[in-house]
Amino acid sequence: MRHATPERLGDVVGRQPLSLAVVDARSMQRKRLAAPVPSMDGNINTLFNNLATAIRNVSVAVGIFAFMWGALQYATSGGSPHQLELGKAAMKASVVGVAAIVLAATLVNMVFTALGGGGAPGG
Predict the structure, then answer these.
(1) Burial profile 83-106: b = 16 or more Cβ within 10 angstroms, e = fewer
(2) Most buried residue, 18, 31, 44, 110, by most Cβ within 10 Å?
(3) Nearest-angstrom CA–CA distance, 12 and 18
(4) In the chain, where the domains are located
(5) Which pLDDT belongs to residue 46?
(6) What gap in Å lies between CA 48 and CA 66, rounded to an integer?
(7) pTM reported for the whole predicted model
């Protein structure tokens, strides 16, 4: 973590109270550390990459939630064979679903790369 140079901090302190100077120095540091906002430069490849990544991320999150739901059903079955089977089925289905999502994202990335679009970010 870099600190403000003494002359810069002196400039800030010289024009406002010390408490405001500290807040101002911290806000300037946050601006430097903030993640850059991705720009939409009008490129169809960028649009496709962003859309595919968003769909993949949401789908994987839903799959993980479904797995947790199945695990909760399994854990709270109380020995009921029907509830045990429901929990197992939900967990198996969510694992298959997440695997299908990852496979589909990989195939889409391979096709996109073969067509000259470059690799999808994070894909």
Answers:
(1) eeeebeebbeebeebbeebeeebe
(2) 110
(3) 8
(4) 1-34, 44-114
(5) 80
(6) 27
(7) 0.57
The predicted structure's pLDDT at residue 114 = 85
Rounded to an integer, what distance in angstroms lies between the CA atom of residue 105 and that of residue 119? 11
Higher per-residue pLDDT: 26 or 107: 107
- Amino acid in the structure at residue 102: V
Q: What per-residue string of b and e applies to 28-61 under the rule 16 or more CB within 10 Å gives b?
A: eeeeeeeeeeeeeeeeeeeeebeebeeebeebee
Residue type at position 2: R
For residue range 62-111, list pLDDT tens digits in order: 999 999 999 999 999 988 999 999 999 999 999 999 999 999 989 988 88
Token pair belonging to 72:
């909760």
